[in-house]
Amino acid sequence: MPTTLRAAPAVLTTSFRDAGCLPGLRAWIREHVTGDELRGDVELVCTELVTNAVEHARGPRSVVVVVQPGGARIEVTDGSPTTAPVPGRSRFGGEMRGRGLTLVAALSRWEVRRVGRRKTVTALLPA
């Protein structure tokens, strides 16, 4: 009888205060995500969600990245449950603002969950 070995998903979980965590997150993604297109999409979505949490929400903040054969899941949690992210809008003015969630929506299925004093934005990216 043939045996199928399954690799455990690669999982990164970390807390962060500011965008200074992004170089380390990107390095981990480059090491653990296979396929150029998926790797680029995961890196972009992760960067956008983390940056949004830093710019628009209070702490504590954390990110979870799960990479598995079917794609990847990114979860960014922050301490601002009432601040709802909206694609195409930013609370900061300027024509170069508000595009991040539009990109996230184009590259993934995403949702917002609120639990107590926290909110989690989850993005699912297909392989």
Q: What do we call the CATH homologous superfamily?
A: Histidine kinase-like ATPase, C-terminal domain
And the CATH topology?
Heat Shock Protein 90
Question: What is the structural class?
Answer: alpha+beta
Spatial strand sequence of the major β-sheet:
1-2-3-5-4
| Rg over C-alpha atoms, rounded to the nearest angstrom | 15 Å
For the biggest sheet, the summary is: 5 strands, antiparallel
Chain oligomer state: single chain
The overall strand count is 5
- Residue stretches low in confidence (pLDDT < 50, at least 5 long) are none
Order of helices and strands: EHHEEHEE
Distance between the termini: 29 Å
Number of helices: 3
Please supply descriptive tags for the structure shown above.
31% strand, alpha+beta, globular, kinase, 5 strands, Anti-sigma-factor_SerPK, serine/threonine-protein kinase, Heat Shock Protein 90, 5-stranded antiparallel sheet, HATPase_C_sf, 127 residues
